[in-house]
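Supplementary notes (optional reading)

For those who missed the lab, this is the record we used. Protein: Biopolymer transport protein ExbB. Length: 257 residues.
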Amino acid sequence: MLIVDILAAAGEAAPQNKFGFAEALEQGGFIAYATVVILGIMSFGSFYILFTKWFEQSKIMRQYGAVRTSFWKAPTLKEGATKLEKNSAWRQIVDDGVKAEEEASKLKDPTESHDWLHGSLARSESSINARLAGGLPFLATVGATAPFIGLFGTVVGIYRALIAIGLAGSASIDKVAGPVGEALIMTALGLLVAVPAVLAYNYLQARNKRIAEMLTGFSTDVLANIASGGAVKPAVATTAAGAKPAPAKPAAAPTKS
């Protein structure tokens, strides 16, 4: 019992930590809680967009392998479209191209028909790129504004520290440490939210550019195939279809000495 009483007395005599994260939020009041909640929502939204867009981009890149290996083996675009996944970006371009070919045949001017076909494929490609870019403005906004939101919490913390100094009449550490610690925490949180958002934006944007190049190349191949009546196909398709190798040249007859 004596040991228990001594430990209890020591615990009561030990100084309590008044400068932790929870204590800083409690001292900051509504503004501190609101700042943390806003930064938390920004951080959750950034990681949600990062993972969802990454999976979407990876799916499109994976489907591109089927386009290169199986799609161009089909004799017509309609038959090749059945080998692509429904609601995929590549299937959308093919379907829009086939539909544009049917509508372009109604135009009397061949030049206008070609322009209509080209514009339809370009419009389909642009709609896919716009869908892939969805959510990226949020990442850019978070990366640009999160540090300023943290800075707002910092300014409020410094203001509270100055008020504490004015009321106490002296800049003692116990009056200043709490508000200043709160201010530094808000600054750190703002940077912690902004940096991943900027990195995610640049990473996803680079992948979108790669996909846009793939879509442009595929759209050009579809346009050439339609304009040539199915005669023009990518060289990789011919190789993948199992083109016969060129016959070996006969060896030269040995010369008689």
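If you only remember one thing from this example: Residues 18-228 form one domain.
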